[in-house]
Amino acid sequence: MTAPESGKASLAEDLRRLEEIVRELEREDADLDRALALFEEGVARLRGARERLTQAEARVRKVLEDAEGQLLEIPLDEGN
Amino acid sequence: MPDLFSSPDDAPWTPALLARTMRRVLEGGIGRVWLRAEVSGLKVYRSGHWYFTLRDAEAQLRAVMWRTYASRHPEPPADGTQVFVYGMPTVWEEKGELRFTVLELLPGERLGPQQLALERVRKALERDGLFEPARKRPLPPLPERIAVVTSLDGAALHDMITVTRSRWPAVELVILDSRVQGAEAEAELVRALRQVNRLPRIDVCILGRGGGSREDLAAFNSEAVCRALAAVTVPTISAVGHETDVTFTDLVADHRAATPSAAMELAVPDRDEILGRVSSLGLRLGQALGRGTRLARERLARAGDRLEVALSRRLERPRRDLERLGAQLDALSPLRVLDRGYAVARDASGRVLRRREDFVPGQPFGLTVSDGVVPARAVGPA
């Protein structure tokens, strides 16, 4: 399976790759193995993109600077 | 007696040359300045231009304000009025006279030290090109991490989170807490903006606060804050106050929004729109598989081999499914076809074995079925 695990690639990357795959398949000259591989990757990318869009919950973090000047990102507790 | 006329370098100047040179020296050497002065002897000409004298206790200058600029004022200032004027000294060549050309005129009593300070900042930022449209950067279409410099206590943050949740949840907001008004605000905003450049994978930076009085917004007119904002390495959006309040950060940022909510709407796309795009890609993917494999299917069908016919059917079925189901992803997958009992034979290198001659007696191959690959071995060509 050439497709990445969903959730690893970025949404922009998924959409960009999907456009590429669709364009290549639409050229009608892909050989069968290649077409199947592209299709499988396309489906995985589609699923990844949809999951990202429908299941994601916006994450909010706040930045703290520690004593050494390192920046830390910690989840924002909206209760406070 | 020196020979006044012998050297060509010492050829006499003409009045025109001298006047033009004086004008250049004056305009180039002084440029635009603010003057605090008293107006006297103002005359409005029929052309709409204003002619007057600008003076203080020790000196005076003739001044002109062309109609384009004068017409912005409802009426000319009365004699004796203290004013601030912005403009430049020049030489009126035809008359060989010094003139101060006034571009802007403000009543002296209304322009306090704060406004003068603001004007200094504006000019410094302008001189360094921080307001130049050419340095404005476009926003990325699909940001994943947005740095937000604002107060954790402010309504602005709450509004921005609300917009994000409803419009584009596939994003991470990274908040850099800073006071946004008061004596500490300037230093804290500068520190927060500098921290943005040290955070990984930030796509956009929003600097925001809710509306407030002119004094409340002072930090957003600070030169240090503006320079820190200009130094942010990703595209920036300034969102301060409501529409009537324009601050220098609004002018320095790559983009300006009237409110923090509007800034977030600028920064993130609309989920429904992108979902629509994903669905249409799904549809095209399905249709394309059908088209893309049509030639292969035709070749297979001609060969008439059982295996090939099976493969052909295997393609025909998902093709019809795909065109019917469009964006319904689960149905698009060839894995679903395997669920229905079809299998794909592949050799060790992953090549699909589609003809009898592809199978070598005794050679192992893999049979991909719905839940995995079954190792198999060819007994011989059928």
CATH superfamily membership of the largest domain in chain B, which one?
Hypothetical protein af1403, domain 2
Helical proportion of chain B, percent range: 25-40%
Radius of gyration of chain B: 37 Å
* Helix amount of chain A: 40-55%
* Helix vs. strand class of chain B: alpha/beta
**How many structural units, i.e. domains of chain B?**
4
Order of helices and strands of chain B: HEEEHEEHEHEHEHEHEHHHHHHEEE
Biggest interface pair, counts: A-B, 44 and 48 residues
Would you write up a description of this structure?
- The complex is a heterodimer of chains A (80) and B (382).
- Chain A has two helices and two strands, in the order H-H-E-E.
- By secondary structure, chain A is of the alpha+beta class.
- Chain A has one domain.
- A two-stranded antiparallel ribbon of chain A has the order 1-2.
- The model of chain A is unreliable at 1-7 (pLDDT under 50).
- Chain B is α/β, with parallel strands linked by helices and 382 residues long.
- Helix content of chain B is 37%, strand content 23%.
- Chain B is built from 13 helices and 13 strands.
- Chain B has helices spanning 15-30, 67-70, 113-127, 155-167, 185-196, 223-230, 248-252, 260-267, 271-292, 294-303, 306-325, 329-332, 334-339; strands at 33-44, 50-55, 60-65, 82-92, 97-107, 145-150, 172-177, 204-209, 236-240, 255-257, 344-346, 364-369, 372-377.
- A five-stranded mixed barrel of chain B has the order 1-2-3-5-4.
- In chain B, helix 9 packs antiparallel against helix 11 (306-325) and helix 10 (294-303) runs antiparallel to helix 11.
- Chain B is elongated, with a radius of gyration of 37 Å.
- Chains A and B meet through helix 1, helix 2 and strand 1 of A and helix 4, strand 7, helix 9 and helix 10 of B.
How would you sum up this structure in a few lines?
The complex is a heterodimer of chains A (80) and B (382). By secondary structure, chain A is of the alpha+beta class. Chain A contains two helices and two strands, in the order ααββ.
